[in-house]
């Protein structure tokens, strides 16, 4: 069966192609300035020149959520910066009238070639990942969730534990009913932005469905995950939104947390977190509650009263 790319995939592929063409044109301008002794662009001399490059800006600001492999994204960022660092060294030498060391230029050619190969390898996975991202919130959708969570379970060892957090926005239907879906969408975007401000790039963030979201946070202890959830719960409640009549309102969220275990499958741990989240709803909403098997007795009592 023929696989037809989605519009988002086509648009992103075109964007990446254009960025790569701009980067190649930048390399041509650099070579021309070095060979013909013409003045190089001023931004080539800046220490953060890699961020002024359109491709570098894309890698730093927008590309992260498209990589399922964070190590691959970090390596691309590092190699791209290295290319610009070498370019700055050569331009500074040329501007001072000094000879450019042959080794430096060879390192530049190798770095540029390796970067091109690496981003070529990443290209297909980037395009494939687009449909795994919810276009409204930027969270990953459920298409790859099970595989990613199974991978986290497989990596559970003797170190600090990993956790599933199920988060549901309280009374979200009433927001849509009262203010309309456009305002509801703004709330979902705002909520997602708050979440991303409080998690690491290695944490997994999924839109589970509607106004329900799932986080997977690894390598933190029981007290730490309780603090993370409480800070996030508080930050969500402080975020405000403007209604069509100009008044402002805020929303809250209920949290259910369970510990990942090598003895349980993905379905059972999600169900445990979901059950804890509904317990938070019944306890009055705007709560953080651990599943009974995931936390100490003291933490369970403390979590029930966290509001």
Structure commentary:
This protein has 2 domains: 7-130, Aspartate receptor, ligand-binding domain (Four Helix Bundle (Hemerythrin (Met), subunit A)), CATH 1.20.120.30; 145-304, Reverse transcriptase/Diguanylate cyclase domain (Alpha-Beta Plaits, 2-Layer Sandwich), CATH 3.30.70.270. The chain has 307 residues and is an alpha+beta fold. Helix 1 (7-35) runs antiparallel to helix 5 (102-130), helix 7 (172-179) crosses helix 8 (181-198) and helix 8 runs antiparallel to helix 9 (222-238). It contains 11 helices and 7 strands.
Features of this protein?
307 residues; alpha+beta; Four Helix Bundle (Hemerythrin (Met), subunit A); Alpha-Beta Plaits; 2 domains; 5-stranded mixed β-sheet; two-stranded antiparallel sheet; elongated
Topology record:
Layout: H1 7-35, H2 49-52, H3 54-62, H4 70-95, H5 102-130, H6 145-154, E1 163-169, H7 172-179, H8 181-198, E2 204-209, E3 212-217, H9 222-238, E4 240-242, E5 248-250, E6 253-259, H10 266-282, E7 288-290, H11 297-304
Parallel strand pairs: 6-7
Antiparallel strand pairs: 1-3, 1-6, 2-3, 4-5
Helix pairs in contact: 1-5, 4-5, 7-8, 8-9
